[in-house]
Amino acid sequence: MSASYAIGIDIGGTKVLGGLVDEGGRIVHRARRDTPDRSKSPRVVEDTIVSVVDELRAHAADPGGHVSGEVSAVGIGAAGFVGADMATVVFAPHLSWRNEPLRDALTHRVGLPIVVDNDANAAAWAEWRFGAARGETHLVMITLGTGIGGGLLIDGALHRGKFGIAAEFGHMQVVPDGHRCECGNRGCWEQYASGNALVREARSMIAAQSPVAADLAVRAQEAGGLTGPLITEAAKAGDPTARELLAEVGHWLGVGIANIAAALDPGRFVIGGGVSAAGELLIEPARDTFRRKLTGRGYRPEALVVAAALGNDAGLIGAADLARSTTR
Predict the structure, then answer these.
(1) pTM here?
(2) Are residues 184 and 263 in the same domain?
(3) Are residues 263 and 183 part of one domain?
(4) Is 177 found in the same domain as 111?
């Protein structure tokens, strides 16, 4: 008897990740492509998605392989605002999509049922089904990557809002007239608590030739560029400046989740995305600030703040499982 799989696609600001996912949430094969430059047409991004899907379907259909089976559906988690129809990407700050009918554009090319959702919604679903939020009735998912994504799950249901664009926490204003955001506004949370923010602050210290950033500058030169993972690696190795930079991002993370707790009162915050690879170097400063900024602190229960269990895989696992459950 052949196995049943769904394909999950996670589209971020820098990469397209794909996975062949079984019914237990396990990834049995992976594919990856770089995200096309944002100046490229939506068709180029679609071509990239189709390429990933084709690769994964070929592995599923290989009767001589270890993962032989049928693919029932494709779930796409997009880093952007996805309409309530779970088909249209209304706006993607880091890509060229504007009211893009992504599901319809891909359906005839892929030949399988397709579900489109926000990537953080997909990650929230995965962590609730298979990861760090199993059994939680009120979950807020925060994904820290190029920007900040958010997902809200209550009593086993994702809450997308009337227009499908709920939980875009990354675009809450936390600093009036602060840094310009790619969404068009200023002072958005993701300008202070994301991978882009981490790299921007490190780059500014290096550009100012700050002696405390000298070791980080050498690392960046040897690696051929400054990236968030490089800063995280330096912090884990004990670099004090890298640790300070991560703690600052953690501080702003705590500010944001305290605001969310005041509005939504969840039982658990799950912190995922690429930046969360820093672990407690990021999350402990976030917890400290959360406790200090929480409205009614000392007189109310506090939500747990935990790291995602599924890491960078949460988005594609959740997208696949949502597609499977929605089209079944």
Answers:
(1) 0.91
(2) yes
(3) yes
(4) no
Lowest mean pLDDT among 8-17, 134-143, 316-325: 8-17
Give the count of domains, the chain. Answer: 2
- Strand 3-11, strand 69-78: pairing: parallel
Clarify whether residues 298 and 320 are in a common domain: no
Whether 43 and 108 have beta carbons less than 8 Å apart is answered as no
Boundaries of domain holding 317:
3-126+313-327
328 vs 213, which has greater pLDDT? Answer: 213
In-domain check, residue 215: no
pLDDT at 19: 97
Phi, psi of 148 (to 5 degrees): -125, 130
| CA angle centred on 81, ends 80 and 85, rounded to 5° | 125
122 and 40 belong to one structural domain: yes
Beta strands in the chain (DSSP E): 3-11, 15-21, 27-34, 69-78, 81-82, 89-91, 98-100, 114-118, 138-144, 148-154, 157-158, 268-272, 304-307
| pLDDT tens track for 97-154 | 899 999 999 999 999 999 999 999 999 999 999 999 999 999 999 999 889 999 999 9
Residue 114 CA to its chain's centroid (Å): 20
